[in-house]
Write a structure and sequence with these properties.
620 residues; alpha+beta; Immunoglobulin-like; TIM Barrel; 3 domains; 8-stranded parallel barrel; 6-stranded antiparallel sheet; 13 helices; elongated
């Protein structure tokens, strides 16, 4: 995406809470290990009575999990250091840890405090966490050589599994679930209802009605009990549910076409705005922008915004405030909550962009290693359930964008081949690509046709053809659908770009038409029609760039050309798309059998999402 609004606003390290390495899922609970499972070594009686260590599985994805130990000083004197020991069954191990030094001898694991977190005043507690592989649970827990429960009596037992949920009152968008109670020696506190492995509700009763579902879609439900000691038991047997109606297509409107929007990690637009605007029910996919490409690897773009920033109840998608100790916050957690409410939405993590494309050239020198790094980041256990694939926004392979690349025409194909091999057939793999349809232009510089066999689709950036980088004009629409007499450059329009990609063998179904939710404009313009001279860029959110939601009232459209709109107000001249021109473009996209459309980006739309709605209606 070459629009300057794609710059990143990265916070300094000083503004990031570096101690907040891991935060717990809303449904995570602490498990005080039963003494029967803790075969400890002899230890002083005062050690056993003065501190406890509890373990929680913050998240579990089948082949691995995130674990958290909490050490609490329950005595009356200061605890000056702590060491937690436990055993894992064969096949279960710690793969990475934070806030403690963790070592092992075979299946016996030892965690010791760091220099800054070893001293605990009476009543104080500290936690450390780790990512683990395998399915086992810790046993034989010792804290400073004594039993981890701080005493000598058996601990509480976890609850049993509830009965498999029964589905009733099934509609296009909802289902009622009922189950038989779990049993527990101290009593059951509540139940977590899980849809496709993600907790969607915590209830005290034995029924729950799940709403906001998609018609004609398959879901799987389980229920987990929690007791009064906040221990969770095993999940119930799964129940498969398919909502009525619909055709199971990608689009909520039933067209089967893709309606994808870019969500940036630096703007004022929040995930909750997707709900309040009504856009969440209209879109099918989100590209989360951006991750960086550095030193041959995919890397985090902005840790604070991505997964550390806390949201209040008013800011949160589900009206529930973040807590300081949850394992995931930031946009990632909000996207997780959005997907729980709108399960039809798929989210891809987009890497690169105009500012961060300079690292691709180095990365594609070893595409296998690059793919592995991207997979490891996207599938990080802390947020693996948030993302359904990866989008690569390289501007531009074997050509020039902000920087110039000389990696050769085959680099895009080699990269996509390695990515598909690593991500497999079930993850989405896409790319945002140039829409330069000129002879010998950027589309001819790289093997987009050869790479197409590995991708799900291309986001063809059919905007930013013209703008105030030509400060004196001529004025021209930045997103023309077709050519027109007097266009400043041949091949700089959507129709020519799509035709060139088809000629290179890219299936029409793998091409998405791009829509910009912003305008580009000049000032010092006296001519209303395109082609006039100017004195420089018009004032906007950036010089020569302004959101549609602003322009629709400050400089309403006065004409159309080549399937898009323009406006002349005073001495300013702007071009942008309106709901009407979006409708024209969607009709054209359908006539070309394209896979759908995408847009840059949500923040440019109105509060009621009128451009998103125009795309959705136009694709039906």
């Amino acid at each position: 995406m070459s629009t300057p609004t794609r710059r990143r606003r990265i916070r300094s390290a000083q503004s990031i809470n570096l101690n907040k390495r891991s935060k717990a899922l809303a449904g995570a609970t602490a498990l005080l290990l039963p003494l029967a499972a803790m075969v400890g070594l002899a230890a002083p009686a005062e050690a056993a009575a003065s501190a406890t260590a509890t373990f929680a599985k913050a998240s579990d994805w089948g082949s691995g999990f995130e674990g958290k130990w909490t050490v609490k000083n329950t005595g009356t004197t200061t605890l000056n250091s702590w060491t937690v020991e436990w055993d894992f069954p064969a096949g279960t191990k710690v793969t990475s840890a934070w806030d403690a030094t963790v070592t092992n001898s075979a299946d016996h694991w030892t965690a010791k405090n760091l220099g800054w977190n070893g001293t605990l005043a009476p009543g104080a507690s500290v936690s450390f966490g780790f990512n683990g592989s395998g399915t086992g649970a810790p046993t034989g827990c010792k804290l400073n050589g004594a039993a981890c429960d701080g005493g000598t009596t058996p601990g509480d037992s976890a609850p049993s599994a509830p009965g498999a949920p029964t589905a009733s009152e099934l509609t296009d968008t909802s289902v009622k679930l009922s189950w038989t109670a779990a049993t527990d020696d101290k009593g059951v506190k509540n139940y977590d209802v899980k849809r496709n492995g993600t907790t969607v509700a915590t209830v005290t009763g034995l029924t729950y009605t799940n709403t906001g579902l998609t018609a004609g879609t398959d879901y799987s439900y389980t229920v987990v009990a929690r007791d009064t000691a906040d221990q969770t038991g095993p999940a119930s047997a799964a129940t498969a549910v398919r909502t009525t109606g619909g055709g199971g297509g990608e689009n909520p409107g039933g067209s089967g076409k893709i309606n994808l929007g870019y969500f940036t990690n630096w703007g004022s637009y929040t995930v909750k705005n997707l709900v309040t605007s009504g856009s969440a029910s209209k879109i099918t996919h989100i590209n989360y922008a951006f991750g960086n490409v550095q030193n041959g690897k995919c890397t985090i773009g902005d840790p604070y915004e991505d997964y550390q920033k806390s949201y209040t109840a008013a800011q949160s998608v589900d009206g529930v405030a973040d807590t300081w100790d949850q394992p995931l916050s930031g946009h990632f957690n909000q996207l997780r909550k959005l997907k729980a409410q709108y399960p039809h939405i798929k989210v891809l993590w987009s890497f690169g962009g105009w500012t961060w494309s300079g690292g691709f050239g180095q990365a594609v020198q070893n595409p296998t290693a690059f793919a592995q790094s991207c997979y490891d980041l996207v599938e990080d256990p802390r947020w693996a359930d948030v993302f359904d694939g990866i989008d690569l926004d390289w501007e531009y392979p074997n050509s020039c964008g902000l920087t110039c690349d000389t990696s050769g025409p085959a680099s895009i194909k080699n990269m996509m081949q390695a990515m598909r091999a690593k991500f497999g057939p079930n993850n989405l793999l896409t790319a945002a690509i140039t829409a330069d349809g000129s002879n010998g232009g950027r589309l001819d510089a790289a093997d987009y046709g050869g790479a197409a066999q590995y991708i799900n689709w291309y986001d063809v950036m059919t905007y930013d053809y013209f703008g105030t980088w030509a400060a004196q004009g001529p004025t021209a629409p930045h997103s023309p659908l077709t050519s027109y007499p007097g266009i400043p450059a041949q091949g700089f329009n959507s129709a020519d770009a799509i035709a060139k990609l088809k000629a290179k063998g890219v299936p029409a179904s793998k091409l998405l038409l791009g829509i910009g939710f912003y305008g580009r404009g000049w000032t010092g313009v006296t001519q209303s029609a395109p082609g006039g001279s100017a004195t420089g860029p018009a004032a906007g959110v950036e010089p020569g760039n302004q959101y549609y939601k602003v322009l629709k009232t400050t400089c309403p459209a006065t004409g159309t050309i080549a399937g898009t709109a323009y406006a002349h107000c005073g001495t300013d001249w702007w071009s942008y798309d309106t709901p009407a021109t979006v409708g024209t473009k969607m009709a054209w996209a359908k006539s070309q059998s394209l896979g759908g459309a995408f847009f840059w980006e949500f923040n440019g739309d109105t509060a009621n999402g009128e451009l998103v709605n125009a795309i959705s209606n136009g694709l039906k």
